[in-house]
Write a structure and sequence with these properties.
The complex is a heterodimer of chains A (273) and B (345). With 273 residues, chain A is mostly helical. Chain A has eight helices and no strands. Chain A is flat and about 90 Å long. Chain B is of the alpha/beta class. The chains are: A mainly alpha (273), B alpha/beta (345).
């Protein structure tokens, strides 16, 4: 977010934006991108907007859209590969932090010896990493495939509206192209989102991430606790205990209120004629 | 106008300078604090003797949407109807409160606020639950008798606005997306659920409407006055400034309401007490929007089939937010609701 945010701030601060590549609409939209893009949809939309914003003709728009999708696919692939790299760095960092704990580089060592839980966790981590990568890849592939289908439909729609090949269509305003693209892509996107297969892929992605993140947390907590440092797990225990106490207090208060209400009702009954 | 024109850049500069704080426009004062919420009173001198109304907002997003502008303020509309308006505004939980559950909110905060108003006014309040707040209010109303005073009084009446009650329909997009997600595992990993992540999910349901279309509307404000740009930015701020949600309550709600459809099936329990909608015997008013993609009509309509008391229903054209900020809602829904409330003994 920060890099994009910087671009937006610069633009808003009054730079000569018209001649700058940051000045266009899609770059501004991209400033909104941040980690809160759980379905990877906004990034694709940014690229699509950028492609349309810089196109002069329908033919150029469809070419640029196709290229934008390819770029996004490549970026996603790179991101998936990077995850593997990032996890290796993370494991190295953890090992440096807590060298007392034995680690294995591979997940295919059975849980033998005095640290079976840790070995099992490392095996889980390797399995979960693969599962997450596979789920992420399946989801992102599905998103980009949808975008390609939308681009093909966009091309067809432009051609059928004018009755001429897209390549021969004259210059169109970027906002018109964007409007046409939206009207073609939006219903297809909504239909895609409503497909049980899409929903299953999204659920698989969330579940795979949850498992992986939980194991990463556990391994980090193990390392911190081995050094006698506070861990997230320890804070969780405190939070849960506090909530248990608050709940008990609330239930006691509710019981007291109920008894008071009963007593009041009994008193009212005794005093009635 | 294309977005990269100088006019659009000028709008952007004005938007950057706009007052984007989604603060309420109607003055209020804090009248009490519960464990996880603050009770605000909006009453004016004119409404001081009016019947108390307790608004229960959703745990998702902030209640500022009810009072974003002078001419489209739900709060002002209700005040003008002679009601002594109170709002139960949830305080966002820190990580130390990640284990807050639905029972804590319903049988704790909501019951406490309701009981406080009952003591203060000598009558139980009318309760108005907004979206998820409607579900929380239904739960409290259903359990009021079971608590025999311990879970707060039975409401004088109960109004729900776009409350997701029956999520069993295949057209319920959120329910369908939630169907196979392991929410316990998710919240074990995340602790609380980030409001920003949730806003990202909601935005991903309608990325075209909330992306290119919406920002083209901003571009269209090139000739508009500052008030219009301010209004746009206040709404923008509200949409993406949702509070974090307590992990446990989030998981309980997602599993209970969206996966198990437990409110309608009668399988929801809070602190071991079954929530039976048939035990909601007070008069009920339920409104929903016909084009709501977050709480579709199938989820919000038909509450009368489940509750034990009389139920009035009203459906309005428009989307989810239209129930709170559209001219139609302010011309039709709130006058109807206020008239209905006046009929409640």
């Amino acid at each position: 977010m920060s890099a994009h945010h910087g671009e937006v701030t610069g633009l808003m601060a009054g730079e000569d934006a018209t001649s700058d590549k940051n000045a266009n609409w899609s770059d501004w939209l991209s400033g909104l991108r941040d980690s809160a893009d759980p379905l990877g949809v906004w990034r694709l939309m940014e690229r699509g907007s950028r492609a349309l914003d810089s196109a002069q003709t329908p033919a150029e728009a469809t070419r640029r859209l196709a290229a934008a999708i390819d770029e996004e696919r490549a970026r996603q692939q790179h991101g998936i590969t990077q995850l593997d790299q990032w996890l290796k760095h993370w494991a190295q960092g953890l090992r440096s932090l807590a060298p007392l704990l034995p680690d294995s580089d591979t997940g295919d060592v059975p849980p033998l010896g005095p640290f079976p839980r840790r070995q099992a966790l490392l095996q889980d981590l390797a399995r979960q990493q693969m599962a997450y990568q596979a789920a992420l890849e399946a989801h992102l592939e599905s998103v980009t495939t949808l975008a390609e289908e939308c681009t093909a439909a966009f091309r067809e729609a432009l051609a059928s509206e004018s009755g001429a090949p897209v390549e021969s269509l004259p210059v169109m305003a970027p906002e018109t192209l964007l409007e046409r693209w939206t009207s073609v892509a939006e219903p297809r996107y909504e239909a895609w989102l409503a497909e049980p297969a899409t929903q299953a892929r999204i659920a698989a992605l969330v579940n795979a991430w949850s498992e992986l993140a939980a194991t990463l947390r556990t391994l980090t907590d193990d390392g911190l606790e081995a050094l006698g440092l506070p861990s997230a797990r320890g804070m969780d225990d405190l939070a849960e205990e506090l909530q248990r106490q608050r709940r008990r207090h609330r239930q006691d208060m509710a019981e007291l209120r109920r008894e008071m209400a009963e007593l009041r009702a009994r008193l009212d009954g005794d005093s009635s004629p | 106008m294309t977005p990269s024109t100088p006019q659009f850049e000028a709008v952007l500069r004005r938007a950057a300078a706009a007052n984007r704080t989604a603060q309420p426009v109607t003055p209020s004062s804090v009248v009490m604090e519960t464990d996880n919420a603050t009770l605000y009173r909006y009453a004016t001198e004119d409404t001081a003797g009016g019947p108390p109304l307790l608004i229960v907002y959703s745990l998702v997003n902030r209640p500022a949407i009810l009072d974003l502008s002078l001419d489209r303020s739900v709060i002002r509309r209700l005040l003008a109807g002679g009601l002594d308006v109170h709002l139960l505004a949830w305080r966002p939980p820190g990580q130390a409160r990640r284990y807050l559950g639905l029972s804590d909110y319903v049988l704790g905060d909501l019951a406490d606020a309701s009981a406080w108003l009952d003591r203060r006014h000598g009558v139980p309040p009318h309760v108005l639950g907004v979206c998820q707040g409607g579900v929380l209010a239904l739960c409290q109303a259903a359990l009021a008798d079971a608590g025999a005073g311990g879970f707060g009084p039975r409401p004088r009446s109960l109004t729900t606005l776009a409350a997701p009650v029956d999520t069993g329909s295949p057209g319920d997009q959120l329910a369908q997306l939630a169907r196979s997600v392991d929410f316990e595992a998710l919240t074990r990993a995340t602790g609380n659920v980030a409001g920003q992540a949730l806003a990202g999910i909601f935005a991903s349901l309608k990325p075209f409407a909330l992306g290119p279309r919406r920002y083209r509307a901003l571009a269209g404000l090139a000739e508009a006055d500052d008030a219009a740009v301010d209004a746009f930015m206040r709404m923008e701020s509200w949409m993406y400034d949702g509070p974090d949600l307590a992990g446990r309550a989030f998981a309980e709600f997602a599993r209970g309401i969206y996966q198990d459809n437990a409110l309608v099936r009668g399988t929801l329990a809070l602190d071991g007490h079954p929530v039976d909608l048939a035990r909601v015997t007070c008069p009920v008013f339920s409104a929903h929007a016909l084009d709501d993609h977050l709480v579709p009509p199938s989820a919000a309509a038909g509450l009368g089939r489940h509750v034990g008391g009389p139920c009035e229903e009203l459906a309005l054209p428009g989307g989810h937010l239209g129930l709170f900020v559209s001219a139609r809602a302010h011309q039709r829904l709130y006058p109807t609701l206020i008239n209905w409330l006046r009929t409640i003994p």
